[in-house]
């Protein structure tokens, strides 16, 4: 277990939309290197929480700290991204006409502002980083394949790879296994658990089998607050969690 204190800290965060409290005094701590799953019913505030962390939504009150020094409320979206917070939305958005390799190349260029002079600067270091990421996401053999003809799962892994090119400290991942086959889910579990330690990973996911397979700590959101937090066994046997989310 690689843990070195908090990397992300939300303190008493609230935000309302038209008088409705989507996030209501939320307190959340993510430790450096941990893999955290966030679950909760529709409308619990999961997406809004991710939007607050990435600077897309500004909370009405509270504070958000990253890496102990950075008050994210003083920063805009690009500044927060550059600090090392990467976000993967549910739908994969790869460059379909480009190869897997070129997608990773482009992801690197977008970070460093190298495009369009990238080819001249495709240094050994960049090539090595792409090779590393290809191995991490399991697409070494498919490096020359056009991204548009990859399977749904492979596109999701490629997009995670594109985020990894920028060496994020924290990865926010929204419903990674939606629409995946069992086999793709297993590989995604390996990928995400393999990233933890070197990165901190926050996963919002509805598939409880998948959550159980990857998470050490699960946070249950409900009405913009933390309803329960702990191991999958402890939260899934919590009567309040069963009542609002798992009961059916
Ligand atoms: P979850 O991701 O857990 O399903 P959301 O964060 O999307 O929950 O939504 C939390 C609540 O806030 C919902 O009731 C939703 O309708 C409301 N909400 C979210 N974003 C907005 C917005 N931009 N304007 C108005 N209401 C919003």
Automatic annotation (TrEMBL):
It holds the Pfam family BCA_ABC_TP_C. This is Urea ABC transporter ATP-binding protein. GO terms for molecular function: ATP binding; ATP hydrolysis activity. Residues 8-248 form the ABC transporter domain. Gene3D superfamilies: P-loop containing nucleotide triphosphate hydrolases. InterPro entries: ABC_AA/LPS_Transport, ABC_transporter-like_ATP-bd, ABC_transptr_urea_ATP-bd_UrtD, BCA_ABC_TP_C, P-loop_NTPase. Keywords: ATP-binding, Nucleotide-binding, Transport. One of its GO terms (cellular component) is plasma membrane.
């Amino acid at each position: 277990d690689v843990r070195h204190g908090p990397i992300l800290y939300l303190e008493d965060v609230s935000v309302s939309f038209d008088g409705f409290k989507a996030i209501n005094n939320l307190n959340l701590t993510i430790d450096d290197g941990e893999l955290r799953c966030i679950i909760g019913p529709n409308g619990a505030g999961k997406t809004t929480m991710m939007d607050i962390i990435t600077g897309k939504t500004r909370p009405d009150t509270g504070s958000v700290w990253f890496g102990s020094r950075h008050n994210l409320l003083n920063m805009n979206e690009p500044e927060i991204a550059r600090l090392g917070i990467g976000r993967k939305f549910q739908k994969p958005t790869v460059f379909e006409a480009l190869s897997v390799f070129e997608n990773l190349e482009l992801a690197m260029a977008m970070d460093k502002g190298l495009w369009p002079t990238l080819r001249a600067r495709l240094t050994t270091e960049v090539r090595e980083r792409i090779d590393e990421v290809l191995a991490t996401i399991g697409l070494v053999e498919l490096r020359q394949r056009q991204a548009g003809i990859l399977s749904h799962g492979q596109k999701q892994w490629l997009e995670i790879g594109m985020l990894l090119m920028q060496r994020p400290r924290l990865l926010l991942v929204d419903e990674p296994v939606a629409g995946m086959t069992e086999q793709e889910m297993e590989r995604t579990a390996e990928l995400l658990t393999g990233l933890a330690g070197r990165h901190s990973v926050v996963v919002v996911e509805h598939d409880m089998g998948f959550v159980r397979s990857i998470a050490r700590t699960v946070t249950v959101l409900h009405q913009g607050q933390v309803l329960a937090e702990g191991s999958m066994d402890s939260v899934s046997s919590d009567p309040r969690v069963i009542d609002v989310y798992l009961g059916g």
